[in-house]
Specification:
Strand content: 35-45%
CATH architecture of one domain: 7 Propeller
CATH topology of one domain: Methylamine Dehydrogenase, Chain H
Number of helices: 13
Number of strands: 57
């Protein structure tokens, strides 16, 4: 999840030595804390790290521009050492980037780590095109070769050494004659969308006269996408050696509906985003025969293609969980994969605006960013900045700041009780002192830490949400929310030896996954014999390895280190529950450790922490890699049925865990026998709720877990059968747990029975050019859904207890009204559907859900008001059914 905050930053660009006939930047790319800007007459190399500094530039003189033409297309080699530029007269310029020893001094005592760059011209050769009237597409490249699309429909291959291999035509290869079907869960902003034709490519699909306007290369998937000027899109397979063997580039499938104007690939999720002339973005699942997943657009917000123009560019976040869309005529928007609108520069129209207030027509676009459209954009490597170039602008780059919350993913623990959005140098913590009003606590990290360890890379909250662990490039820092105090390493040399790749909380202990380079190891310092053995072997072979470090939260120092556990490889995902730690390695090896603490965990004592391996699983599967795994503890009801006391349950090893894969598939893994059961798909995040809250007032203890995706939120309960986790017995409810498509769920408040969501707001000021982006938190109650679920499962006593716990909560009467209305509405729909069918006599003992709901609400003083309010909202023809269930006295 990504959310914009603060005012956009403006990075000024220099002007060339000569005026240009082109009024736009031709190339923009961010790689390894650097970004490259190529204009028609010069190029600039900038730092994209904490300090935005111009490191180098190259300006062409008037003679060069007149003889060889202005810069037309460019590409930066992935290793950042070379830059290739094609001019309008088809001269190929190859530049070399070298960093000098001259360090840039930013300010302060510590050096900045930035060095000036020297950009020099290595080669200038005219490309021997057979036709001089050609137009060209963008470049794509690997570290050896470049590829260029031509207006005659052919591709042209060049090496980074300046060798011209000539033009070649795509070789059609019809491997699959059947059309790929649309995915059954295709949605357009949550609404069903049409079929997405995908045909195999034959000779008549590609003609030499159709110009290639864009190439998109995905080396990970070994695919090349070719976009033609008529909107046709073709996917091509390439050799495992990349672009070297052009004879192996085969046209495979024709994608889309013939109106594509730009494309972008999310390689990890295997999703293709296609921008269209109609201003709509379509998402295709490349793992499922390129079936259409869903479409996103601004139509539901009152904007058509006449307002925004066609899509001009699409940029995925580094973790591929969201993507930014820029339009030719106006603005940009950031969407989650599930279709939630996370951020938009375009002001929302209408009186019920959430994103921004209604303003007078003549002021509507006065302070709106990118009001002339979006030309190019790139995320930085961490996802904290979105760099954007406005259409027709040569003067500046606009940088939007983003905070993110990687829920349920990766190697850092999370708690649903504490919701944290973290930016490059700060934290935004949702505080819920009163459930009526949620607010953000804005925490800037201490300058002494973040200036040397920028940016923030991992954040983990303790189970009670009162302590935060934050790790930057090196070391880590702790924050006590109650005391409002930071705790840091006292010895900076110890801090710099830690490269945190993951964080977990184990009670009052913070667990750090540390990455160690064998060149920076002091094996003799370790008290662990396994660690010394692995470190010696790794040093001998030149390997790098990982370890778990256990620090008490009261002291960050080597002298207080409780345990050091070497790991076999880089962890893919980690999780913790009570005294068990789960570590998963690639391809899918699961190790579970048991933690035993001997002695008291106090500054005055010297406790001993012992780690033992209790389970190892090696699972063979062809599925995508796990993005997150969470233990599923025994629930109170299941534990009591098995005669397990609460004290004994603390020592029970979790026997199951949930797996969320990178493709959004959610499944349940049995840790005893390694069996995996698929539950659902298209999931972005999930929360395990059972066994997580230590407080008796938790309103969601009955729930096993919740997940969120394009369907909204799904609630999962344990089944009453012999197998408490049989897939077919799971109850997935509820259709009305859908959120505003601008509200993204961050977590839960179990004692209030609400979901905490975040959405974007913009505040405007006459003294600033751009608005300030402000994340806004809101609470959405799910109490009515939980009550109805319990009644559906015939758990009347549990429903009454839950309602009594909630009676003093805000909006309790509204929840009761919503409960009765949804149940009554469903009853009316059921009666209408069955009115032509023969009625079945109803047994006296089988009470309807409507009657059960009225029986529940009758226990509270709000009963009569609730019934009357629901009656006013429904057709009078159905009142008899309502009053029959509610009792004649309510009339």
């Amino acid at each position: 999840m990504y959310m914009a905050y603060g005012w956009p930053q403006v990075i000024p660009l220099e002007q060339g030595l000569c005026p240009s006939s082109q009024k736009h930047i031709i190339y923009f790319k961010v790689i390894n804390r650097l970004f490259l800007v190529v204009s028609p007459t010069h190029l600039e190399l900038w730092s994209s790290s904490q300090h935005k500094v111009r490191l180098g530039k190259y300006k062409r003189n008037a003679e060069s521009l007149e003889r060889e033409g202005e810069n037309l297309q460019a590409v930066w080699r992935p290793d950042t050492k070379l830059i290739a530029i094609l001019t309008s007269s088809f001269f190929l310029h190859i530049f070399k980037v070298q960093f000098s020893d001259k360090r840039i001094q930013i300010g302060g005592k510590q050096p900045s780590g930035l060095f000036l760059a020297n950009v020099s011209l290595l080669l200038s050769e005219q490309v021997p095109f057979a036709d001089k009237d050609l137009t060209v597409s963008n470049f794509v490249s690997d570290n050896k070769h470049l590829l260029l699309g031509l207006s005659n429909g052919s591709l042209y291959s060049i090496s980074w050494k300046g060798e011209f291999y000539g033009a070649f035509e795509l070789d059609p290869c019809s491997r699959d004659s059947s059309d790929a079907s649309v995915s059954p869960h295709s949605l357009g902003n949550g609404v069903a969308s049409g079929m997405a034709p995908t045909d195999s490519v034959s000779n008549h699909n590609i003609t030499r006269k159709t110009a290639i306007v864009q190439l998109e290369l995905c080396l990970l998937m070994r695919l090349l996408f070719v976009l033609y000027s008529d909107g046709q899109l073709v996917s091509c397979s390439i050799s495992k050696k990349g672009l070297k063997q052009v004879e192996y580039i085969k046209a495979e499938k024709k994608l889309g509906s013939g109106d594509a104007v730009c494309i972008s690939v999310a390689s990890d999720q295997q999703i293709l985003a296609v921008g269209t002339r109609r201003g709509v973005v379509k998402l295709y699942d490349l793992a499922e025969s390129a079936s259409l997943i869903r479409t996103v657009s601004l139509c539901d917000w009152g904007y058509s293609v006449d307002d925004t123009g066609p899509v001009s560019c699409i940029a995925w976040t580094p973790d591929y969980s969201a993507f930014a869309v820029g339009w030719k005529l106006r603005g940009l928007t950031v969407w989650s994969v599930s279709g939630c609108r996370l951020m938009s520069t375009i002001r929302q129209i209408g009186l019920s605006s959430v994103s921004s207030p209604k303003v007078k027509p003549n002021q509507d676009r006065k302070y709106e960013p990118l009001m002339n459209g979006t030309s190019l954009m790139q995320w930085d490597e961490y996802g904290y900045r979105l760099y954007v170039i406005e259409e027709g602008s040569l003067e500046r780059v606009i940088a939007f700041s983003f905070g993110k919350c990687c829920l349920s993913r990766g190697v850092s623990g999370m708690t649903y009780v504490c919701q944290v959005i973290y930016g490059e140098d700060r934290l935004l913590v949702v505080q819920s002192e009163d459930t009526d009003e949620l607010k953000f606590l804005h925490l800037n990290l201490p300058v002494s830490y973040i200036s040397q360890n920028w940016p923030v890379q991992h954040v983990a909250a303790s189970k009670d949400g009162m302590h935060l662990a934050v790790a930057g490039l090196h070391g880590l820092i702790l924050y006590d929310i109650r005391l409002k105090k930071w705790r840091v390493f006292g010895d900076i040399t110890q801090e710099q030896k830690i490269q945190c790749k993951g964080l977990l909380w184990l009670g009052k202990i913070v667990v750090v996954c540390n990455y160690i380079d064998s060149s920076n190891t002091e094996a003799g310092e370790s008290r662990n014999s396994d660690f010394r053995f692995i470190s010696l072997i790794s040093e001998e072979l030149g390997f790098m390895w990982y370890e778990l470090l256990f620090y008490p939260r009261y002291h960050l120092d080597q002298s207080s280190l409780l345990c050091r556990k070497p790991l076999l490889a880089k962890p893919m995902v980690m999780d913790v529950y009570q005294d068990h730690i789960l570590v998963t390695y690639r391809p899918f090896d699961v190790h579970i450790f048991h933690v035993r603490l001997l002695g008291e965990l106090t500054p005055s004592s010297t406790p001993d922490l012992q780690l033992s391996t209790v389970r190892e699983l090696s699972i063979m599967t062809a599925k995508s890699h796990p993005a997150a795994m969470r233990f599923i503890p025994e629930q109170r009801e299941l534990a009591s049925n098995n005669h397990i006391s609460s004290s004994d349950s603390m020592d029970i090893e979790p026997a199951r865990c949930l797996i969320l894969r990178t493709n959004g598939e959610l499944s349940l893994l049995d840790l005893d026998d390694g069996r995996e059961r698929e539950l659902t798909d298209s999931v972005e995040l999930f929360w395990v709720t059972c066994g997580q809250s230590e407080e008796k007032t938790s309103l969601i203890e009955e729930v096993s877990w919740l997940d969120y995706g394009h369907r909204g939120m799904q609630v999962w309960y344990p089944s009453p059968g012999a197998d408490p986790f049989m897939q077919e017995d799971f109850l997935q409810l509820d259709p009305e747990l859908e959120f505003d498509r601008e509200a993204y769920p961050l977590g839960l408040l179990p004692n209030a029975g609400v979901v905490v969501c975040v959405s974007q707001r913009m505040s405007f000021s006459a003294c600033t050019e751009f608005p300030c982006f402000e994340p806004s938190s809101q609470a959405q109650t799910i109490l009515h859904c939980l009550l109805r679920h319990l009644l559906q499962r015939d758990k009347k006593e549990e429903a009454l207890r839950l309602a009594q716990l909630s009676a003093e909560k805000p909006h309790f009467s509204h929840c009761l009204e919503w409960l009765l209305f949804t149940v009554f509405d469903a009853e009316i729909s059921r009666q209408n559907a069955n009115k032509n069918q023969i009625s079945v006599p109803k047994h006296a003992g089988n009470r309807s859900l409507l009657e059960k709901t009225c029986d529940l609400i009758r226990n509270f003083s709000e009963y009569f008001d609730v019934v009357v309010s629901v009656a006013r909202k429904t057709d009078g023809r159905h009142w008899a059914d309502l009053f029959s269930a509610a009792g004649r006295s309510t009339e």
